[in-house]
Design goal:
This protein folds into two domains: 203 residues, 3-Layer(aba) Sandwich (Rossmann fold); 112 residues, Rossmann fold, CATH 3.40.50. The N and C termini lie far apart (65 Å). The longest helix has 20 residues. It is elongated, with a radius of gyration of 22 Å. By secondary structure, it is of the alpha/beta class. It is 33% helix and 20% strand. β11 and β12 form a beta hairpin. The structure holds D-glutamic acid. D-glutamic acid binds next to loops.
């Protein structure tokens, strides 16, 4: 009996020592379908953000062999309800974790609807040499073949992999690893929900292994280009969608509201009709920064192509989608209203 006791004591001690050497990961939970609960396993209806992070961690017990995990509940929402306030809470907490060396990496669990926006925002305001990996799921935790546990496990593997350091914020989803600047949601319901139309995934995670095949040049340029605190008041930037025969009401309404910036989700190479052209002139004259982006899911908006930006007083989003151009312009406006400088941010970071 004595021998058994001393063996068990030794074993517990050895496990303790081994656990001490494992990488430390803090999971910041915001809600989403990964934390969703539905009435039945075989129907789509569910409520996002119902299951607390400790239960999500409990669903992947084997992760304790690879990392020391702690969870913090930042919010419990469907990400269609994501707010700038929660973005700032996440950014402040991630920077605090980095400054205090509280963890080796951070994973953020998040709904998929706006995950690309949160990923990009955090990529611009947190240090790129501490891995931050976002993930979520397309099926609620209560569904048949829920994809959340595997996505969470894989996201932790990506976060602790030494090759991830320096890659900035990433999205890990359905075995693909995506750069925050390039990633977008491409399917409304499929588990293969994300992609990067302009560049493809930067890596893969499968069978417990992470492999990278690409790296982002823009990531190398943007080592935390913008700094925000809990008190930073972010400028207001809104998006207006262009479509055949669109009237100028939305642009004029935003000018009347004195917004700081407007992103036009233009057609093709960021084009819009004459009605928009006149409204954009009114917006620029009123001191609003207007950025031409495109509703087209790939490619870039080119300066001085069909539209004379110099004459019109507009800047272009380069290859950022409208929803990411809004984030770049919001953060850029915390530093300057100079159009040349703002345009340079779009071409650099
Ligand atoms: N409810 C939406 C959200 O939270 C979509 C579901 C999901 O998380 O995938 O983003």
């Amino acid at each position: 009996m004595k021998k058994l006791l001393s063996f068990l004591t030794l074993l517990a001690f050895a496990i303790q020592i081994q656990a001490k050497d494992l990488p430390r990961v803090i999971i910041l939970a915001t809600g989403g379908t990964i934390a969703g609960a539905g009435a039945s396993a075989d129907r789509a209806g569910y409520t996002a953000g119902k299951i607390p992070i400790d239960d999500l961690i409990g669903a992947i017990p084997s992760v304790k062999k690879v990392a020391n995990i702690t969870g913090e509940q930042i919010s419990s929402i469907g990400s269609q309800d994501m707010t700038i306030d929660i973005w700032q809470k996440l950014a402040v907490r991630i920077n605090q974790i980095y400054a205090n060396k509280e963890a080796d990496a951070v994973v953020v669990t998040h709904g998929t609807d706006t995950q690309e926006e949160t990923a990009y925002f955090l990529d611009l305001v947190t240090p790129s040499d501490m891995p931050v990996v976002l993930t979520g799921s397309m099926r609620p935790a209560t569904a048949i073949s829920a994809d959340g546990p595997k996505n969470l496990y894989d996201a932790i593997l990506v976060a602790i992999d030494p090759k991830t350091k320096g890659k900035g914020v990433l999205v890990s989803f359905n075995e693909g690893v995506y750069d925050a600047r390039e990633v977008m949601k491409l399917s409304t319901t499929k588990v293969e929900a994300f992609g990067s139309p302009n560049s493809g995934p930067v890596g893969q995670v499968y069978d417990g292994k992470v492999e990278y095949y690409m790296s982002s040049i823009r990531e190398e340029n943007s080592k935390m280009p913008f700094k925000i605190t809990a008190d930073t008041k972010l400028p207001r930037v809104d998006i207006v969608y262009m479509y055949a025969d669109a009237p100028s009401d939305m642009i004029d309404m935003l000018v009347a509201k004195k917004v700081d910036g407007i992103v036009i989700a233009g057609v093709g190479n960021g084009n819009f009709n004459k009605t928009y052209m006149d409204a954009v002139k009114r917006a620029v004259a009123a001191g609003v920064i207007v950025c031409r982006a495109s509703r087209t899911p790939s490619g870039r908006v080119v300066l001085e192509d069909e539209i004379n930006d110099d004459e019109l007083g507009t800047i272009v989003s380069d290859d950022l989608t409208p929803q990411k151009a809004r984030i770049m312009l919001m953060l850029g406006l915390t530093r300057t209203k100079d159009k040349k400088q703002l345009q340079n941010y779009f071409f650099t970071f």
